[in-house]
Amino acid sequence: MSKAALKIGAYIVFSIIYLFGFNNVENYVSNHGKIDLEKILIESEIENLGYRESCANMDLFQLVSYAEGMVLYSPLGEYFANIGRNHGVYDKDIVFNNGSIFGIVLNAQENYSQIAELSSPMCVINVSIPRIGIQAIMKGLSIDRVEKAYNISIGDVVYTEQEGVPVGRIFKASANTLYVEPFKCFFSLYIFVLRQGL
Question: Does the global pTM surpass 0.70?
Fold first, then answer.
């Protein structure tokens, strides 16, 4: 079976899981009018996050700050909260909705924040890494060189290569593989960076 067929099959399966397995967060926000904004930091010593029954389980996270505010929805798929840096909210903070990861803060100003809702990460195949791009991972670097020389850290946000959509956060890195905990999921997803045309 070709790689293209496998990718198409995986996309269909993951799409079905996404459509029937997750809550409609947008309806929750419109009905309740507010969500929790929590900034979390993944502990760097975590070696293998493994399976977690719920994203509401904070045992593996260190709570950095907390704030609550009203959220407005725009037709462009963006959300704006009426709290910002003055309330302890910063760029790349994780946004929780009723205990589940909802989105990420893209632009925190003094008194308001712009929030991007996260789509299902399971259909993502190609990923890039903030600050360095995908090429730096392709050189067979050791974990130490990946984290130190190229400034990749546990907890960094991973984006789709073309659309720039946040996929999840790195909880482990090796020379050729990033282990990513996806947003809006209750289990860990392993995204392999392949040597294709680089």
Answer: no
